[in-house]
Amino acid sequence: MKAIVNVRLKKGVLDPQGRAIAEALRGLGFHEAEDARVGKVIEIELDETDPERGAARAKEMAAKLLANPVIESWTVEIAA
Questions:
Q1: CATH number for region 2-79
Q2: If you average pLDDT over residues 30-37, what whole number do you get?
Q3: Domain ranges (residues) in the chain
């Protein structure tokens, strides 16, 4: 099974890369682009058959390595 971990900066944490993207979009004529936030997606192939155990292990991986819990939040989804 595949675990998909989405990591994003928490609200209130400055995102200079997202700000630069929003400014560049406006510079290209996409004036409706008020703001942008940048994150990362990590796909992990798990040797696991139980979706609940797979999700729990992926959450543990995110907390221990994939995200900085001080400034980032994460979600985990399991794909068959």
A1: 3.30.1280.10
A2: 97
A3: 2-79
